[in-house]
Amino acid sequence: MPEPPRFLAACRREPVDRPPVWLMRQAGRYLPEYRAVREKVSFLELCKTPDLACEVTCQPIRRFGLDAAILFSDILIPVEAMGMRLEFHEEHGPLLPDPLRTAGQVDALRVPDPEATMPFVTEAVRRIRRALPETPLIGFAGAPLTLAAYMVEGGGSRHFVELKRLLWSDAAAARTLMGKLTTTVIAYLKAQVAAGAQAVQLFDTWAGILAPADFEEHVLPYVQRIVTALRPTGVPVIYFVNGAGPLLGHMRQTGADVLGLDWRVDLRVARATLGPGVAVQGNLDPVVLFAPPEEVARRVGELLIKGGGRGHIVNLGHGILPDTPIRGVEAMLAAVRQGP
Fold first, then answer.
1. Quick check: is 1 in a domain?
2. Structural domain total, the chain
3. Which residues does the annotation mark as catalytic?
4. Nearest to 251 by CA among 216, 217, 281, 276
5. CA–CA separation, 220 vs 214, rounded Å?
6. pLDDT tens, position by position, 74-97
7. Rounded to whole angstroms, what are the CA distances from 292 to 235, 237, 296, 327?
8. Reported pTM
9. Helix or strand (DSSP H, E) at 238
10. For residue range 205-243, what is the model confidence (pLDDT) as tens digits?
C-alpha cells in the first residue's frame, strides 16, 4: 500500500520523513493572486462561489507546495444558515447586526441542514479534491464557544462582556445556544467529510478568554461531543485554542487527535504536559515571518527541536497576517524542509 501523506501520518503520530507544514489562513491577502480574485468579488461572494473558493484554496499549494490545503470559507457561514444576518466589512471584519441578547432569540435559531442551506461549501470541497488529488484537504468549523461569542457580541470584542453575562446569568439560554451550535457543527463537519475532507479543524479562537473552570463548564463538554460524533468518520480532528497555555490539561480531555497551540506556549513544555498520546500543531509567532530570513530559519530550527519529531505539524500560532512578506513564508518553509 502507498504511504499516507505526511500530514495525515503526523496527525496519527506515525513516523514521517520530516514534520509536515501548512499555515492557518494560508489562502489570504498576503498572496497577490488572492488579492487579484478579491478585487472582483466580495468576501462572502468568494466564500459562496465554489469555483472561486476552490481557486484560492489551491493558490498557496501551487506556490509553496504545502503539505495540506484548507478549505477556503469562514467560520460564521453556519451562523448565517442558523438564521442570523451576517455582514463583512473591510475595516471591521464580521458584523452580526442583530446580536443574541434574549432567550427568545436563542430559541428562534434553527439547526440547519448543511447540504440544503450551505451547498456551496460541500461543492467547494468536492472541487478542491478533484483539483488537488495528492494534497490532503482540511475542512473546518468554528467551535461552539467561539461562534457564540460572535453571535452574542455582534462581532469582535475586547472583553466579551455580553457573552460572559449570558453564560453566567442565563444558564438555560446558554445551554440551549451551545447545544444548537454543537449539533450544527457536527452536521456541518460530517458533510464536509462526506464531500471529501480528509481532516477537520475546530477553531476555538476565543476559548482562551475563559478561566479554566469556565472552560470546563462551557466549552469542554461540547467539544467532546463534537470529537466523539466525528470519531466514526475516521478523519483526524484538530482542535485549536488561541490562549491555550492555562488550558492544556482541559484540551487533552477533548479527545482530539491533534491540539493546535498558539505561540505563547512553549512547545517543549506543552508536549511534556500533553503526553505522547496526542499530536501537536504550531506554533510560530506569525510576526516572525516579518523578520530577516536568517532569523526566521533560526526560530524554525528551534521549533523543530522542541516539537520533537513524530506527531508535530508545523504551523503558525495563529493565522498568517495580511501584509506578511512572501520571503518570510519562503524562509519558513525552507527551514522546515532543511530540518534543525
1. no
2. 1
3. 25, 29, 38, 74, 150
4. 216
5. 9
6. 999 999 999 999 999 877 789 999
7. 37, 34, 6, 9
8. 0.97
9. strand 237-241
10. 999 999 999 999 999 999 999 999 999 999 999 999 999
